[in-house]
Specification:
Elements lengths: L2 H16 L3 H15 L3 E7 L2 E9 L2 E5 L6 E11 L13 E7 L4 E5 L3
Antiparallel strand pairs: 1-2, 1-6, 2-4, 3-4, 4-5
């Protein structure tokens, strides 16, 4: 691609993005992040105590109703269950499916490692 064509494509993309509302920009950002993936960690708490930790989560999705398509009150995903809670996916710790409700005391963050 010629440098002039690349520059024009970048400027056009920025102009189109600037014309979007904040909500649309956030959705585009989430779609890009879902496409590229992340190295997420989900910690679930029982009171002030860590009860479960899941590692290597690419994304968490909101469940949608089959008939009405409306969002349900829980999230789901796949991650490695950190059984000994050492922030490392050790041999023998397997990737599992999980669901958490909107009312679960949980923290989701990008892994610092």
């Amino acid at each position: 691609m010629k440098p002039m064509t690349s520059a024009f494509a970048c400027v056009l993309g920025l102009v189109l993005l600037a014309g979007c509302t904040q909500e649309q920009q956030n959705k585009i950002s989430r779609d890009i992040q879902n496409w590229t993936g992340t190295n997420g960690v989900l910690e679930i708490y029982a009171g002030d105590k860590l009860a479960r930790r899941f590692l290597s989560i690419d994304k968490m999705s909101t469940a949608l109703g089959t008939d009405d398509g409306k969002p349900r009150a829980y999230r789901y995903g796949y991650g490695v269950l950190d059984e000994n809670q050492n922030m490392v996916a050790d041999p023998g710790e397997k990737k599992v499916y999980f669901e958490i409700s909107d009312y679960t005391n949980a923290v989701f963050f990008e892994s610092p490692r």
